[in-house]
Amino acid sequence: MENNFKSWMAQPISKIFIGTNLVFALLFFVSVPSFVKEYITQDAVSIGGKKYDLSDVKNSSPIAYSKFQSEYKSLLKNTFGEFAQDKLFELVAKDRNIKPSEVLNEGLILREPSEEDIINVYMSNKAQLGGKSLAETREKIVGFLKNQQEQEHSRNKYREIITKYPVDFLIKEPEAIRVTVDEKNNPSIGPKDAKVTVIEFSDFECPFCKRSQDVNNQLREKYKGQIRWVFRDFPLPFHQDAMYAHMAANCSIEEGKYWDVFNVLFENSGNLSKSKVDEFVLKTGLSKEKYQSCMKDQSKLKSEIEADIQDGQKVGVSGTPAFFINGIFVSGALPFENFDEIIQKELKQ
Asked: What region holds the Thioredoxin domain (predicted)?
């Protein structure tokens, strides 16, 4: 509630309309269209007199083509979603003899928030209110609570509409774009003969990489024994402490402490000065003597890490985190469902 209230407080007290994202969340799961040759060759670029179309992009830069498909999917989702919403409102308005703009608010009765609710919101968000008293913020808080009532009413209305007027997107799935990504004996979790292999390129200092670890752990737990997870180094050049952290992690491999070090480094991402990294690593039980001996050969360690970076760049990795699920590229710290969908399909093949 704190984050919702904070963003809402910046707005004037007025009616806040529900955007199309709500209908997307409640309505349906949209798939990407297949890209047949006759369509992907319509648009092109001419370079030095030679014409190149999307089929050339697909052949030479599969990751760029995959990103194109993803963006096209989002565009379709927005376009059809807005169209579907308008049509649904028209149908309901005709049935009930009201205007389309009145559909969401039909039957809406706002109750006055209780004093207890008002005080709870105030106390939960007091630190964000700049020292203002309850009396000074009461009007805003009441508006916020009434807006929550409107949103709940709108969600219920959408559910009613969808039940009466089902919506199906008749769109075909595209072929999966795959690239070959080598493991190169990097640290891994899961059986070597697993049907699904996930290769992660990540950076211990990257906040998005840290955020993605919760999802990664959920996936490994759900598909324990069914997937193999491989970690490859990709410290970004503008993260000044990342390279040292990755070297330290690699120095823990031989003693079987890699995943312990891995976890502690991500837990402390953002606090990875050299002295802190050394402290975190040794707290995992790693031999101080062996660790210091390994860290002396920084040239060798950097060479191994840079090889990971180069391999990642060859297959289109330009930022972190980046994942390849059986060669299918997934970019960024995305929700669990995005990975889960791909993994399920791969296990069924």
From this structure: 167-348
For residues 91 and 225, membership in a common domain is answered with no
The verdict on 63 and 144 lying in the same domain is: yes
171 in any annotated domain? no
Note down the domain range covering 55: 2-164
Query: What is the full per-residue pLDDT of the chain (349 aa) written as tens digits?
Result: 545 665 665 554 443 333 444 444 444 433 344 444 444 557 899 999 999 998 898 888 888 888 888 788 878 888 998 999 999 999 999 999 999 999 999 999 999 999 999 999 999 998 888 889 999 999 999 999 999 999 999 999 989 999 999 988 777 777 778 999 999 999 999 999 999 999 999 999 999 999 999 999 999 999 999 999 999 999 999 999 999 999 999 999 999 999 999 999 999 999 999 999 999 999 999 999 999 999 999 999 999 999 999 999 999 899 999 999 999 999 999 999 999 999 999 999 8
Rounded Cα distance, 17 and 23, in Å: 12
Q: Show the beta-strand stretches assigned E in the chain.
A: 44-47, 50-53, 188-189, 196-202, 227-233, 322-325, 328-331
Domain total in the chain: 2
